[in-house]
Design a protein that fits this description.
The chain is of the alpha/beta class. The protein folds into two domains: 41 residues, no CATH class; 209 residues, Rossmann fold (3-Layer(aba) Sandwich). 27% of the residues lie in helices and 24% in strands. The protein is built from six helices and eleven strands. A six-stranded mixed beta sheet has the order 6-5-4-7-8-11, covered by helices on one side. A hairpin with an 8-residue loop joins strand 5 and strand 6. It is elongated, with a radius of gyration of 23 Å. 34% of the residues are buried.
Length: 286
Amino acid sequence: MEFLNDTFDYHINWKSRGYHPGQHKSAQRGMGIEFAGHATIIDYPDPRRIDIRQTIRDPFEQVQVRIFNQRSATPIVIASDLSASMNFGTDKSKHKFASEIASIITNSVMAKSDAIGFIGFNDKIDPSWVSPLSYRPHRTEALIQRLSSYHAKSSGQKGMGNLYQHIPKDQTLVFLISDFHMPMVDIRSTLRHLRKHRVIPVILWNKNEYENLPKFGVITINDPESGQEQTIFLRGNMLEKIKASYSKRKTDLEEVFLEYDCPPFFVGEKFDTFAMSQYFNEYFHA
């Protein structure tokens, strides 16, 4: 598959607390290049770091060593919507598309030596859809593969509100993949619980949902506010009303995510890795 080796560049704008070596700024002392100050050789017994000039200046005549912060790994979690609205799609469902995106995220995380986990949610969070953080993400990869052929039965997304219970206590980068066809109150509640983490909302909207519709006939659509399927008779100006509904929904989603400092990343028919890299450069400076 064309996306198997795709990656994008991401970074965090906080200092990782992880002990595992990685590529992010860290608060951990180690063999890095970020100067963190001086200490006595008694407090930090590393003769390789002796600073002769600082030692000469020390009024207490103690040997001084330079201390540095190492580069560390950071936790990454993929949370993917398993609800029925994600069944949408003819050639490829949103579940399959989410699986492809999750594979690209995993590739990117492995390239940076970070730990990764996976959580699938619908009206609840089933333990069989949870993979704990690991630097060898075999379980996560297995769930992503399972997602590629998944077809949801009637279910919603209430379990999204419990994601915080399954995410590490340390500050975590969370890729939240969904079409977000759900009540806005549920989105706000989720974001409130995840305030200490960095949430990246990856919003899957297919143009066939709201633009590439027939001008006349019976169709089934997902209500963008509730996620519920509706069968309607398309006629007259109904198409324009559907487009207006999605346009307003897009504005509402942008407002609520920006309120919680989580700029949304909308995805149409293709996941653009370059655009994802630019997203991190624009919004989250390292």
